[in-house]
């Protein structure tokens, strides 16, 4: 019986599952960052390798015949963006006795197909990054944003984390709005005990100098780890954090509107990603903007969609029964 490996790779974590031709998932694994654009090919290929290793270890039979590997990731529809990642991953997998060439597809498609078999609709995924797309004939038709931390990802986890650090730096620099985000950011970087005042010989507060050094020492995408601090601070009533969430909601609506015509009120809209699943106010702002006739589907991750896609790539027709089997077996695992 042929088996397939499906992976949902993000900027923060990588999830893998082993699925058979009937849609039953036999094992799952989870590891670190898996996107070569944000983390580099070496680190990303290690994350994929570990997730696959865990999935195979958890599965039965012990030595399945693997007929294909599909990876869903941000930027997957832009093949050149992955660099030599596919080759590095293939080399690592030889250590598991697997000779596989990965197929790389968009995480938007994985998000979309995780809860629906409709071949026309829209998807918005908001995690470390943020991207929307229209789907036509089961393929990506048009995308919006998903341009990465430097050029886009407006309203994403990275965007929120970066804005939190900017707000804290402005607060410490003086003459700007005071915000509880400052304490949250300093705690995140382990700087909570650093003095907030200027020494007579310094032009800036010690805490601000230490924050600048710490923020510039990490990979920019790691600022996404501060997104939960924005949620928590906003719920506590901080105006700056609340304003950031409202702005993020508007940016995400603009991203979705760029691919979704205003007169299409009946095609499904799939919403997914760790940020939308974690922050109810962002999700509510999106839901309030949808017509009552629009089917809105929430997806917690794209692993089921990646499993659905690897079966489609193998020529297997994925209907509601197979999709339900994928999602049900994943829940049990």
Short summary of the structure?
With 333 residues, this protein is α/β, with parallel strands linked by helices. The protein has helices at 36-39, 41-58, 85-93, 107-113, 148-151, 157-173, 181-188, 206-217, 227-235, 239-257, 274-278, 280-288, 303-313, 320-332, and strands at residues 2-9, 14-20, 25-31, 65-73, 103-106, 120-126, 130-136, 139-145, 269-272, 296-299.
Describe this structure in words.
- This protein has 333 residues and is an alpha/beta fold.
- It has 14 helices and ten strands.
- It has helices at residues 36-39, 41-58, 85-93, 107-113, 148-151, 157-173, 181-188, 206-217, 227-235, 239-257, 274-278, 280-288, 303-313, 320-332, and strands at 2-9, 14-20, 25-31, 65-73, 103-106, 120-126, 130-136, 139-145, 269-272, 296-299.
- The strands form two sheets. A five-stranded mixed β-sheet has the order 3-2-1-4-5. A five-stranded mixed β-sheet has the order 8-7-6-9-10, with helices on both faces.
- A hairpin with a 4-residue loop joins strand 2 and strand 3.
- The protein is globular, with a radius of gyration of 21 Å.
């Amino acid at each position: 019986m042929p088996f397939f490996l499906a992976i949902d790779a993000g900027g923060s974590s990588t999830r893998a599952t082993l699925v058979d031709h009937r849609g039953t998932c036999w094992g799952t694994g989870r590891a670190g960052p898996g996107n070569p654009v944000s983390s580099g090919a070496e680190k990303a290929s290690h994350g994929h390798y570990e997730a696959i290793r865990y999935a195979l270890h958890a599965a039965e039979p012990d030595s399945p015949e693997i007929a294909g590997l599909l990876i869903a990731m941000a930027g997957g529809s832009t093949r050149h963006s992955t660099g030599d990642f596919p080759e590095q991953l293939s080399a690592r997998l030889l250590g598991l006795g697997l000779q596989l060439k990965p197929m790389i597809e968009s995480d938007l498609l994985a998000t979309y197909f995780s809860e629906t078999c409709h071949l026309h609709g829209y998807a918005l995924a908001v995690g470390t990054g943020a991207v929307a797309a229209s789907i036509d004939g089961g393929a990506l038709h048009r995308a919006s944003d998903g341009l990465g931390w430097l050029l886009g990802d407006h309203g994403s986890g990275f965007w929120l984390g970066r804005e939190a650090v900017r707000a804290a730096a402005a607060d410490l620099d003086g003459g700007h709005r005071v915000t509880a985000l400052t304490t949250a950011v300093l705690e995140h970087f382990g700087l909570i005990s650093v003095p907030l005042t200027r020494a007579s010989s310094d032009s800036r507060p010690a805490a601000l100098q230490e924050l600048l050094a710490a923020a510039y020492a990490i990979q920019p995408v790691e600022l996404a780890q501060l997104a939960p601090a924005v949620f928590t601070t906003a719920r506590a009533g901080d105006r700056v954090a609340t304003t950031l969430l409202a702005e993020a909601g508007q940016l995400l609506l603009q991203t979705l509107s760029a691919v979704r015509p205003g007169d299409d009120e009946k095609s499904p809209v799939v919403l997914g990603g760790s940020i939308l699943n974690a922050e109810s106010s962002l999700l509510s702002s999106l839901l309030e903007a949808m017509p009552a006739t629009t089917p809105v589907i929430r997806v917690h991750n794209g692993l089921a969609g990646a499993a659905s896609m690897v079966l489609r790539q193998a020529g297997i027709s994925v209907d509601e029964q197979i999709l339900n089997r994928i999602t049900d077996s994943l829940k049990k695992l």
